[in-house]
Write a structure and sequence with these properties.
The complex is a heterodimer of chains A (310) and B (249). In chain A, strand 2, helix 2 and strand 3 form a beta-alpha-beta unit. In chain A, 25% of the residues lie in helices and 28% in strands. Chain A is built from eight helices and 16 strands. In chain A, the strands form three sheets. Chain A has a seven-stranded parallel sheet with strand order 5-9-4-1-2-3-10, sandwiched between helices. In chain A, strands 13-12-14-15-16 form a five-stranded parallel sheet. Chain A has a three-stranded antiparallel sheet with strand order 6-7-8, with no helix packed on it. By secondary structure, chain B is of the alpha/beta class. Chain B contains six helices and 13 strands. In chain B, helix 2 packs across helix 5. Chain B is globular and about 65 Å long. Classes of the chains: A alpha/beta (310), B alpha/beta (249). Chains A and B meet through helix 3, helix 4, strand 5, strand 7 and strand 8 of A and helix 3, helix 4, strand 7, strand 8 and strand 9 of B. Strand 16 of chain A pairs parallel with strand 13 of chain B. The complex binds flavin-adenine dinucleotide and adenosine monophosphate (AMP). Adenosine monophosphate binds next to helix 1, strand 4, helix 3, strand 6 and helix 4 of chain B.
Chain lengths: 310, 249
């Protein structure tokens, strides 16, 4: 039997989330094929073919698949249904938009955001903002999963899988059309793959202060920058920096939470980080309960000092 | 244009969740239940479209136990016109919810369905997408801005890299993200009035939907806790510990 992995990419390069999904589904024990869908995606397909454990890369190259629109992408995956038992994607904004559609059209219940593979049909996944972990078994003919990539290490490189074109006949995108992207210009590492994250909350007080005190520390550490929902809602940071139950889930080696109280919805997105540092002027802040190192201090004093010490 | 909004009764987002000792699930006895926060955002958006003259009627639907009537009454108190309760005591998976709501759509004929992006209990993030696929409609997930004209909805979406704007052919399914709006509170007079607004009761069988679980829950457990850490007295001590004890710098 075979698993089909939907590759995650931005139209230019393969996201390293795909390597993590490949590593996750390798534990199922089936052959692994990767589907690269988009327009002019030959180079991305070559990157996918290098992932260890991948035996074949399918390429669907057509303008209708540009911009990762959910409807044509779903139709493409469903057209391949007979060849596969299991369908997997990273729980990214694309994976979350497409895979439930795929599942519904195959009359399967999707298993979202798996954090472990127990067997070919049994997985572990968090519920209630990570306050409980369920072990669940699919009873459906087709199994559709999304993978929480923070829980898996990426597959290594070194393979040379066959690359094959698949038919894109009849795929159209007349239901929804792309208008524009406002993708943040970001020189920093991706939140979901960064080794170090410096994260700011409502305690920062303004967008200017956020930039003034968080970014220099992040620069020194070559870190990604995260934010709480309160910081994003208040306009201190862009939406794609939100970490948490309904934002991004991260597990870096070091997470530095500054002016963040530690609501369960925030913890849901970062409590699997290896080392957590909390800087907060309220010694009762719940974030200290999960921090390896807590510093009770005004962040406007502590962060500039930290930048100098590094 | 008629708008259908889905609402789910879930544990209140402020409640500390307890895992049942026997591994069977979450202990929900005597805990505060509320409307899923994303569904409040959905209702708010529908009401604003009605206030702007774009929508004519806002119908809310919930699949759940008899007590979900409370949640629907909250929606009516916010300003929705009518409610439909599809009553069942089963834990209904998103696929079955989508099938039931599809049945409601066939009866009601809305042009727009607004669904929360994610229920904060199961954290599935599936129902809206499944409903859209089963209906063969267009889909705009994770909306932070919605504009409607006669033929299409323009939706700005919160995606991993920032924002994406797409146009959806109507009818469409939209799922709501946190930044779409700030939901209103129901006023006391409106809470009173909501008691008299129409609420229709149905069952999954009325829509020929089998709610039997497709996913077997084998076990529910607490996540591994973190061992408690230490307080450091200064930035210098912090840096020293990160370098020499934790080895992350
Ligand atoms: C449906 C739903 C989904 C949600 N999803 C998410 C999510 O994905 N991610 C998320 O983060 N939240 C999420 N939330 C929100 C969450 O419940 C909290 O409201 C939010 O995390 C609080 O952000 P905060 O810690 O920055 O702000 P606050 O709770 O206001 O905390 C600010 C902290 O800063 C400290 N502080 C203030 N000034 C200083 C100073 N000068 N120096 C040092 N410390 C200072 C204060 O002591 C306080 O602890 C969600 C909520 C809901 C209802
Ligand atoms: N039982 C239900 N009744 C009504 N709406 C629901 C139900 N379950 C899920 N939904 C809707 O689907 C959204 C996403 O839920 P989920 O796919 O479970 O994360 C919720 O915000 C609700 O709007």
């Amino acid at each position: 039997m075979t698993t089909l992995v939907l590759a995650d990419h931005d139209g230019t390069s393969l996201s390293d989330q795909t390597a993590k999904v490949v590593a996750a589904v390798a534990k199922i024990g089936f052959d692994v094929h990767v589907l690269v869908a988009g327009s002019h995606v030959g180079a991305i397909a070559s990157q996918a073919a290098e992932l260890s454990g991948v035996s074949k890369v399918l390429v669907a190259d057509t303008p209708a698949l540009e911009n990762n629109l959910a409807e044509p992408l779903t139709a493409l995956i469903v057209s391949l249904r007979d060849d596969y038992k299991t369908f997997a994607a990273a729980a990214t904004s694309v994976g979350k938009s497409v895979m439930p559609r795929v599942a519904a059209l195959m009359d399967a219940s999707q298993i979202s955001e798996i954090i472990d593979v127990v067997s070919a049909d049994t997985f572990k996944r968090p519920i209630y903002a990570g306050n409980a972990i369920q072990t669940v078994q699919s009873t459906d003919a087709k199994i559709v999963i999304t993978v929480r990539t923070a829980s898996f290490s990426p597959a290594s490189l070194g393979a040379t899988a066959a690359v094959e074109d698949v038919s894109t006949a009849g795929l159209s995108s007349d239901l929804s059309t792309f208008i524009s992207d406002a993708i943040s210009e970001n020189e920093r590492p991706e939140l979901t793959s960064a080794k170090i994250i410096v994260s700011g909350g409502r305690g920062l007080g303004s967008a200017e202060k956020f930039r003034e005190v968080i970014l220099p520390v992040a620069d020194k550490l070559a870190a990604a920058v995260g934010a709480s929902r309160a910081a994003v809602d208040s306009g201190y940071a862009p939406n794609d920096w939100q970490v948490g139950q309904t934002g991004k889930v991260v597990a870096p080696d070091l997470y530095i939470a500054c002016g963040i109280s530690g609501a369960i919805q925030h913890l849901a997105g970062m409590k699997d980080s290896k080392i957590i540092v909390a800087i907060n002027n309220d010694e009762e802040a719940p974030i200290f309960q999960i921090a390896d190192y807590g510093l009770v201090s005004d962040l406007f004093v502590a962060l500039p000092e930290l930048e100098k010490e590094l | 244009m008629k708008i259908l909004v889905t609402v789910k009764r879930v544990i209140d987002f402020n409640v500390k969740v307890r895992v049942a000792a026997d591994g069977s699930g979450i202990d929900l006895s005597n805990v505060k239940m509320s409307m899923n926060p994303f569904d409040e955002i959905s209702i708010e958006e529908a009401l604003r479209l009605k206030e702007a003259g774009t929508a004519t009627e806002v119908v809310v639907v919930s699949v759940g136990p008899a007590k979900a009537e409370e949640t629907l009454r909250t929606a009516l108190a916010m300003g929705a016109d009518r409610a439909i309760l599809v009553e069942t005591d089963d834990v209904v998976e998103p696929l079955a919810v989508a099938k039931i709501v599809k049945g409601v759509v066939e009866q009601e004929g809305p042009q727009l369905i607004i669904v929360g992006k994610q229920a904060i209990d199961d954290d599935c993030n599936q129902t809206g997408q499944m409903l859209s696929a089963l209906l063969g409609w267009s889909q705009g997930t994770f909306a932070s801005k919605v504009e409607i004209d006669s033929e299409r909805a323009t939706v700005t979406r919160e995606v991993d890299g920032g924002l994406q704007t797409i146009a959806l052919k109507l009818p469409a399914v939209i799922t709501t993200d946190l930044r779409l709006n700030e939901p209103r509170y129901a006023s006391l007079p409106n809470i009173m009035k909501a008691k008299k607004k129409p609420l229709e009761r149905k069952s999954p069988a009325d829509f020929d939907v089998d709610t039997k679980a497709r996913i077997k829950v084998l076990n529910t457990e607490e996540p591994e806790g973190r061992k408690s850490g230490v307080k450091v007295a200064s930035v210098a001590e912090l840096v020293e510990k990160l370098k020499n004890e934790a080895g992350v710098l």
